[in-house]
Amino acid sequence: MRSIGLLLLINEFIFIKGDTDIRFSFVILSQENDYHFGVAKNLKAQICDQALVLKEECPPIYFSHVDFPHVGDWTLVPILNKIYDVARNSSWLIILEERSMIRLDGLKKLLGNFDEKKELWIGHALEDENPTIIHHFLERKFKYPHMGAGVAISVALLKRLSDKISLASKLTDFNIDKSFELALFIWNELNKTSLIHNDAFCTSEKEFCVSFPRKFATCKEPIPLDSIYFIVKTCLKFHSDRVPVVLSTWAKYTKRLDFISDYEDSSIPTVSLGIPNTEGGHCGKTMAIMKYLNDKLENDYSIRWIVITDDDTILSVQRITELLSCYDPNDDVAVGERYGYGLYNSLGFNYITGGGGMVFSRTLLKKLSASCKCPSISAPDDMILGHCLADLGVKITHSHLFHQARPTDYSMQFLESDRHVSFHKHWMLDPIKVYREWFEREDKKLVESHSTKIEL
Hints:
Structural class: alpha/beta
Shape: globular
Strand content: 15-25%
């Protein structure tokens, strides 16, 4: 057995299988936000505790945003060479999300059956039923990993990947799903190397699993409904079809909600801020909303959170009250589904995609309303907000529970592994049916669980 000093020197974790050394390095996809970083730290502590039980040194465990800082670190591809630099003496790199759970002993036994010298990567393979917008409408069946279930990459493969990152800019201007885009990069650049599916990388906890994602659980008591102000962006042409869907589903569980339109309609009612509807982006309308809310709430200190949605966003109010219990409204917090633009060059930035819903702390709303400006009223509002947040030095907080697309655009195994907050678009589906299937049961709890009565 090698000495502890040597183990520390070469920064590797060794399991003995016969006369074969299996060395692990871990990367946890982490975020700066206190809640998310805390979850990632707990995962690291759990791995180290398991190593102690196995009478081994704790493996090297890296936090992506701390150890490999890059605007696109969450997509993995831009930091593969940095990861290889610290993991080159290992046998396997294990990539985890903060919500992942690991059984070290089982992982040791499983990977002992594979040849680490070969270019391999192993995980729980997902496939789309149909081409989807979130995966750039790829028209063929393609395996990509459920990252919450964990992924094992042989360092032999990692080395080759690290040599290829200069080619990453060919992938796409927009980054949406790190799991799919990493798989596509490996497939395209490494002679169609495909993910190896293994059932032991699970989408939910089972006895035989070596890893699995943990479902979201509220951090504290759900926050009061009275502390959230919901805004729905709409326009005259959708007053008769989209707005009634919102009113008959999640809106009836809110306490503070405005429909912001280009036309005042007292039957809904809607509020017009004097901004005409545009067919492209809606920056002018969104920035007017920011100022409208900041002015309206100047002396109303009960509102702590702002939720801005489209008129074809389908969401759970109850789950939003649970999710926001994890964040401090006194901090500059922007939560939603993170997308990236141009992340493989120095001008890239991240933003919250608007269709899934954008959540801002009241503290941050005040700063955005004062500083964020539109180059034109038709500029993409979510992307401009991403620029403004970067200028303010505010990191976007990603939640995998918000979704820019429809349930049919995601693998059902992915959807079944957690408690989601939102979906987007009414195209080729019944939005009321989507709401009833995914969210209505949860939202009905609001009638009983909140002290403020909801009139239905």
